[in-house]
Amino acid sequence: MISKICSRDMPLLMKEVYGAIGAKFPEKPEHALIDVTEWLLRVPCRTPRRIHLSDTLRYKILTSTELRSLDRLCFVLFNGHDFRPYLGDTTRNIRERHKLKKGDFREIVRARKANDLFFADWGLLHFHLGPDIRTSANRTARSRRVLIAQLTDTDAYLVDVIPHGMGHADAWGEKTLLEAIARNWPHLLERSHLKGVSIDPNASDLEAIDRVRSREHGVNASIQINGKTIMAPGLGISTDGSSTKAVLYVMRITRELDAAEEAFRLQFPDEQALLAVKGDGVAGFYMPETDVMAVGALSDNSVTTQFFSRLLDETGVLGPHRLTHIWSPTVN
């Protein structure tokens, strides 16, 4: 019986991706696709975005350095330039999984904290507002206060500038951030409302630091805002600290690739084939003996095609001649 092509060859592509961006490949290859997907979700594509400022930020007192850096960042976002230099290191880099000792709870918590749990839970990013971009690391100087924002494909919603780091461990659980979003852009939280959930008026909500600690322990906590219960605007985290959104995305990719492989096998049941990805992100199966790529049953709008297209954009795995080349274990 011929083994599943995609499950066999996908780790090989992921290894090339990790090598291209200088990241450490995880011990368990099955983690790589989830972690890469999570990374791509955290670092949205570079495209022009409309800028929206919350009422909180409009009246915030900022230093001259913060103002200049915020102006630069708004210019970058509005014009679709690369905003990654402003992101925190945990956000802009692929998660590095640590080797866990069985039953060592402290190590499990440490492994979760290696991920951007703030984004996974609430879907929010933080941008540093340092005075310059240090070319050696291609990032802005780290700043005591950071901009909190939510990005969609078309818009950048700038929420607040808050202190973080030493002495501010509760920053990533501040309910006021979601309250500002609810006041200014309620549509961003609409899908996160838990419908039909009644609130006990005498029940106390969690403190900010408790929300942070809940994430670190793999627990998704609800938030009460304006009489409504909000649950994980970013879709939350799984028990190992992975983004639930990324896990669901990978499940969709896997289903699409399995369906494409099944359709391929109906035509070529005995063909020795390999996973292949065209420069535009369309996946298919490469047959070395005939030097032909059979395109699978995937449309240009499929989740898998969008994923591969974005992956090739960000990593440059196919090099400068991407549109005339394909990726396959033997071709590259």
What does this structure look like?
- The protein has 332 residues and is an alpha+beta fold.
- 38% of the residues lie in helices and 16% in strands.
- The chain has 2 domains: 1-42 and 241-332, no CATH class; 48-236, no CATH class.
- It contains 11 helices and 12 strands.
- The chain is globular, with a radius of gyration of 22 Å.
- The model has no long low-confidence stretch (mean pLDDT 88).
- The strands form 4 sheets. It has a 4-stranded mixed β-sheet with strand order 1-6-5-2, with helices on both faces.
- 38% of the residues are buried.
- The protein has helices at 5-21, 30-42, 55-58, 64-79, 89-92, 105-113, 117-122, 175-184, 208-216, 244-267, 303-315, and strands spanning 50-53, 125-128, 133-134, 139-140, 145-151, 155-163, 222-225, 228-231, 274-278, 283-287, 292-295, 326-327.
- Helix 1 (5-21) packs across helix 2 and helix 2 packs across helix 10.
